[in-house]
Amino acid sequence: MGFNFQLLFTGIGVGSIYALVALGFVLIYRATNVVNFAQGDFAMLGAFSMVVLSIDFGLPYWASILITLVAMMLFGALFNLAVYYPLRNRTFLPVVISTIGASILLENGVLAAYGPRPQSLPTVFAGQGLRIGAVFLDSQYLLIIALTIVMVAFQFFFFERTFIGKKLQAVSQDKEMAALLGISVGGMIMVTFIYSATLGGLAGVLVAPILFVSVGMGSSIALKAFAASIIGGFGDVTGAIVGGLALGVIETFGAAYISVPYKDAFAFLALFVFLLFRPQGIFGERIAEKA
Length: 291
Fold this sequence. Notes:
The protein has about 290 residues and is mostly helical. The protein has a single domain (about 1-275), classed as ABC transporter involved in vitamin B12 uptake, BtuC. The chain contains 11 helices and 2 strands. The protein has helices at about 1-30, 40-55, 60-85, 90-115, 140-160, 165-175, 175-180, 185-205, 215-230, 235-255, 265-275; strands at about 130, 135-140. A two-stranded antiparallel sheet has the order 1-2. β1 and β2 (about 135-140) form a beta hairpin. α1 (about 1-30) packs parallel to α5 (about 140-160), α9 crosses α10 and α9 runs parallel beside α11. The longest helix has about 30 residues, at about 1-30. The protein is globular. The termini are far apart.
């Protein structure tokens, strides 16, 4: 039983990273009706920014985190202007291709600047964690879970209790009607990209001490976060959170009880099962189409 609780704790910690990136997928999709396949690379940029600032430049850890998040906010605005905005009046396919191209550009840019060798980032905590019975609670995983809870609570408060949040919801539901009501659709989409980039950067900051920081880490996280958003119900915020946590738990238990080398396959096996039996996801609604 203690071993299972240990796996559950680890799975929730890993799933929290997937949930944060999946939230970025869902928010941009709801605002633009486009899937941003560079979302995982936001996490990669956040992780590499921490390596550069805290190790190469020797800045304090918390200062590096703050600078990284501010830089990701600026990058989100730049990404919107360079990748989405010029194609905003086109169909979804050119914009999707544009995000894929941006992902390739980002990965190769970091590869050219920093090289292919994976980097390691030490954790900010002096102690490794605490033990409750047979379960060891790693400090970094506790931080990941705690900050994910904070971000989820902030997001629900922001969208439900603030004026800007209600504007964002209006834009996601009907852009033309929102524009007729005097809402700046372009401005709200800009806010969405900034927030999504910040979420991705935060995910990279949190996961960097656990995984090796490498160019390919963004693609791996993005694929699993995308699968999580589909499992939860694509376009549903709650579904992205639940799907990310569920995927992390499935992956961790599968690696422990079946096979470690095939742990990545369990996420996509779960996705296949959902696409086969419940394609709309956990919180998605079935849509009937006329023949």
